[in-house]
Amino acid sequence: xxxxxxxxxxxxxxxxxxxxxxxxxxxxxxxxxxxxxxxxxxxxxxxxxxxxxxxxxxxxxxxxxxxxxxxxxxxxxxxxxxxxxxxxxxxxxxxxxxxxxxxxxxxxxxxxxxxxxxxxxxxxxxxxxxxxxxxxxxxxxxxxxxxxxxxxxxxxxxxxxxxxxxxxxxxxxxxxxxxxxxxxxxxxxxxxxxxxxxxxxxxxxxxxxxxxxxxxxxxxxxxxxxxxxxxxxxxxxxxxxxxxxxxxxxxxxxxxxxxxxxxxxxxxxxxxxxxxxxxxxxxxxxxxxxxxxxxxxxxxxxxxxxxxxxxxxxxxxxxxxxxxxxxxxxxxxxxxxxx
Amino acid sequence: xxxxxxxxxxxxxxxxxxxxxxxxxxxxxxxxxxxxxxxxxxxxxxxxxxxxxxxxxxxxxxxxxxxxxxxxxxxxxxxxxxxxxxxxxxxxxxxxxxxxxxxxxxxxxxxxxxxxxxxxxxxxxxxxxxxxxxxxxxxxxxxxxxxxxxxxxxxxxxxxxxxxxxxxxxxxxxxxxxxxxxxxxxxxxxxxxxxxxxxxxxxxxxxxxxxxxxxxxxxxxxxxxxxxxxxxxxxxxxxxxxxxxxxxxxxxxxxxxxxxxxxxxxxxxxxxxxxxxxxxxxxxxxxxxxxxxxxxxxxxxxxxxxxxxxxxxxxxxxxxxxxxxxxxxxxxxxxxxxxxxxxxx
Lengths: 339, 345
Known about the structure:
The complex is a heterodimer of chains A (339) and B (345).
Chain A: E1 16-29, E2 32-45, E3 49-53, H1 60-67, E4 75-77, E5 82-85, E6 88-89, H2 95-101, E7 106-109, H3 113-116, H4 123-134, H5 139-152, H6 158-161, H7 171-183, E8 189-193, H8 201-218, E9 221-226, H9 229-235, E10 238-243, E11 246-252, H10 253-258, H11 263-271, H12 311-315, E12 321-322, E13 328-329
Parallel strand pairs in A: 3-9, 3-10, 7-8, 8-9
Antiparallel strand pairs in A: 1-2, 1-4, 1-5, 5-6, 10-11, 11-13, 12-13
Chain B: E1 14-24, E2 30-41, E3 46-50, H1 57-64, E4 72-77, E5 80-81, H2 87-94, E6 97-100, H3 114-124, H4 130-143, H5 148-151, H6 161-173, E7 179-183, H7 191-208, E8 211-216, H8 219-225, E9 228-233, E10 236-242, H9 243-248, H10 253-261, H11 301-305, E11 311-312, E12 318-319, H12 332-335
Parallel strand pairs in B: 3-8, 3-9, 6-7, 7-8
Antiparallel strand pairs in B: 1-2, 1-4, 4-5, 9-10, 10-12, 11-12
Helix pairs in contact in B: 3-6, 4-6, 6-7
């Protein structure tokens, strides 16, 4: 695994399909510019699943949407930002070139399948239009392929489903349709933004299993955006933790859970209730609340809530550094490695 | 306010018998959301009602709160029947049972200060007294971990989701209820604030001896707050008993399947998943016999023939299953290996 460089991009193809460099996004608000993302650099390696985890407002969805350039005109992307997908900088593609990437080479699955689907058009029509546009299939070929896709995502009697409207399906089935649409053009990268948050736990497990098997079969690269550390633990190869618009820790999944280095990661892990805790166990609570970032100056963004804070934390912002190995973290006083 | 009586020494705070909730659909059809459901909650006890969407758990909460009409059965609060109570009598009783909702922000009036939000229930119930109420409000805010000096003149939008949920809990507590009905109270909250609210709820149980009916789909949260658990499927309870017994050694295959689907945060701790067949049937067309059999990996011919009644096992829990798992088994992982048989039609 490579360590995300903090410097500028060198063109050695080290297995990363997507390389985000110095991405900043700000929104104009009544209180001034809100920095939703700040200096985010991230590599997503080919054929692996990277989970981006964080709480509301941490910037995880802004990050996933900015890769596909789905943020509205209110969002301002920093001038120095680069998002390399292979050799192309997505931020510098013109509209039609971006259109050719979106849905074709990078596809997205959203949280709520009901709003991702058009409620008044049959599933078959919605499923085939992308293929007709991107793959230039004729109607019949697209229809045949759509039936095959529905079957692959575990939908029974797929031919009959083609004529149904979204509301005739259950939530889990709808999300399967959305996944079928997303993989229809065989994208190299699939971004799943909270794909199971609206679903029941047994359905969630089925959908995540489906995404994992599709990812493996097709050697697809996947970004899984989630607030649920359990989902990340079970389905991601690597995890990036976000806090207040920055990546604060990134590590292979097992390492992150075994040995978090950034205190925020540790605090998140110890504040979640677990099935093997004793009943009524007091949970660790993190004091205060995540900041809304209006000024980029100042120290570590987690410092006001951190129990390992030292003077340096208030004075200077730590960079995303490696202590050797694949794990990187933004912290002046990281958790010590156990012997 | 605190009484340290063991739950068994007193009558249940809430006693629900054969509860039925039926919704009328267009075309004169009727949908039975809750079907002859019975449970009770002792003083100082938290009962969690768990299950997936459509199982009827929120309908039970609404029926208990008298927010949904009941089609049958009885709901007794401290021995007093709530169903068919006249509006005036119900209003007098209401301060004894209060509710908190899933979305803390939309359940607070954005145009009222915290002081006004907390004074309102006192005024409505004729308990408002300027000097006395100020003290009571500060005490209640203290119980939920908010600083009465600082928050009183502020508005809901100035608080985080977790703080808003604590304000709603304070609003529910100000009338000193005996029963708190919580409908998914932490589902909308982020991880770091969820812990604060769960700690407050656990603290209330201990300090005030409050009884709680806790509706949740999240089994790890349930593990943290519940003394007993009732698992619902299609309007009925399929398993009810001590939380630790049920969550450590489920006897009903549906409980086991639910538990096996919960994502664990310790990589490698994930038990083998018990996959369910198909989807939950519509309550309009229930299968014959056991209502879970169409999805049960262990269904046999007997399951189609007769609906299994809730029957007690050796450890005191009750299970509605013809072939429950032996509760002597050590762990969830061990039961994932049972052999599914052909599902009887």
